[in-house]
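[job 4471] stage=fold_predict status=RUNNING
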Amino acid sequence: MHHRRELLSAVGATLLAGCVGGGAGGEGNTTTTATTTQSTTTSTENTAATPDPDVDDASLLLNWKPNGLHVPYYTARAKGFYEDRGLPLASIDPGEGSDFSAKQTGLGNVAFGITSSDQVLNINSRGVSSVAVGVMMQKTPVVVFSTEEVLGEPLTSVDQLEGKTVGTGPGMVKLLTRLLLERRGILDSVEMVSTGYDTVQKVLAGDVDAAGGVFGDAIAAQHQGATTHSIPVGNTIPSYGHVIATAPQYAEEHPDAVRAFLQGTAKGVAYAMNNPAEGVDFLLEANPVLEESRAQVRDNWTRMADGFVLSEPVRESGWGWSTETPWQTMYEALRGADLLGGSVDPSSVWTNEFLDTEYRYVDSFADVVTSGT
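[job 4471] inference complete, writing structure tokens
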């Protein structure tokens, strides 16, 4: 099996306070729409031997409250894909931010957590050891977006923001937005202001000309009647979105459990991408409170599926694959902003070791989702 490096040695965990807030080129533009992908059916054939986990089940901690970006995990559990690989998923629990889920996995309080590359680097710099074993979103969900009603024209280029007011929330959204503007050479001409956690409303009210947010913010604005356009930051700056993390000690002691979880998840992603309406149903059945926002949930999932799961490394090596550049880019951004708690080697916080390239839904993931079989 291909792997990027050997697994991290277990590191003693000390929970420390202070971390970055919540939350791969040409520039690229995305117009937010409310369309869905036609449903097809994936094959259930498996080509790899079933792992033999030495644990009865596992738990998954999300990075936030369940939403459209979590469709794959609910799909995999509902379809029995985790059980098929020998590891039933006992629970999927709502989280309190990527920093929280990274810490909880590093401390061994949960088997697996959905977090972000910046938070994996952050907690490792603060004495809590967590390792990313798979990448769900091959580029960051951070976008710069605006509405035609406010900007007066479609936002198609970052250069249009020269001389404008750009708002952002905290943490990685702010950091990556600034980095994008700097890369385009217009940072000094832009007035950057904080929008706190009211980014969407600030844009809709015209308090800012555009904003750095996540693609879900642009979708939320569209569902409130605006005509939104967004530019994905990840098209210019190589950086990952959601990653799957665990404690190095858990992975060392239960390697087949990690392989099983990743295999079940990979098949869940493929099934939900080929059957988006059914995938959304699985999420809503487990979280009925989301039913009233079904259309927005659907649009978040289809946007993620269409633009954030596949990448060249996935096509070449398999689902969930990490490469060095996005981790190094994130490390340099955090270090440059003095947001790390100490020293950390960016190559030490991720591994491809547990991604079984003999398993069809890992190795041939791109073929599965592009052919719909």
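[job 4471] summary: The chain is about 40% helix and 15% strand.
[job 4471] exit 0
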